[in-house]
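Progress report, Aim 2. The chain analyzed during this reporting quarter is listed below.
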Amino acid sequence: MAGERVLVTGGVGYVGRALVGQLAAEDRCEIHVLDNLASGEHRLDKMDRGTFTLHRADIRDANAVKDVMRAVSPQKIFHLAAIHYIPACERQPGNAVSVNVAGTVNLLDAAPSGAQFVFASTAAVYAPSDDAHVEEEIGSGPVDVYGLTKLHGETFVRYYQAQGRIAGAIVRLFNVVGPGETNPHLAPAIIEQLSDGKTRLSLGNLFPKRDYIDVADAALGFRKISAGARKEPGLTICNLGTGRASEVGEMVHLIAKASGLDVSIVQDPARMRPVDRAMLRASTDRLRRLTGWTPQTTLEASMQRAWATRGEDRLR
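Predicted structure tokens for the chain:
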């Protein structure tokens, strides 16, 4: 839609920055970004500042959120702002709740009537299972604070949808990888140690299998799901993953291959999470039916990109 006003919360963050870049390059829209720059002001250096308007504000500030909504009057809102690093959520659960739940409510309450609200949820809302998670067969059962906060966020999206206030879409995102990570998840931890000259890698839990999706595919997936949701009535809920789960060892192998280094692994008790599910994998049937698309970037290609751009967004 020519001239559509789009607001991206967390637009300087990981997936948010990729999404803003794609919107600017491929979609005819007026882009606004709401971000408190918690991920670092340096991340703006990799963005074309002429393609969007930055509103520096915190979604926990209800009045600031209302001011931005009045100024922009967005027709579409991609809500990506969140605290999503699980150890940080476990250390400060109150802070995670204030951002991920109260912040979401502030945005929903201030959103213009009828605006499309695309909520970045997570696969962490599902109960642990060895099978692929299916949206239509949800067995909600978060095992961490992050998953709990996102499940509550989904509940409020449902409520505002039922009240006729918004046109809602819930995107259950799986594990994002590739360049530009903002938290020390597995791949950034490996890359940082190798970049520091360490080839004996210190890692935490080695048993988890995860569904890894490249950041560019994740950003495109949000756009595809948004477009598909507009063609169907009611609230849209859709997984965003690849349908393939990879072990920690495979991730280490692929990054080592990209770096050309020989590596070994030592398990570090200080890095081990006390709560960590064994398997997390998406069913992509709903994604294909809704959008006619599935993620295209292989994990190997994603790790090659991440290694090639190491240091550009070094975690601070």
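The mean pLDDT is 95. The first strand starts at residue 4 and ends at 9. These observations will guide the mutagenesis work planned for the next reporting period.
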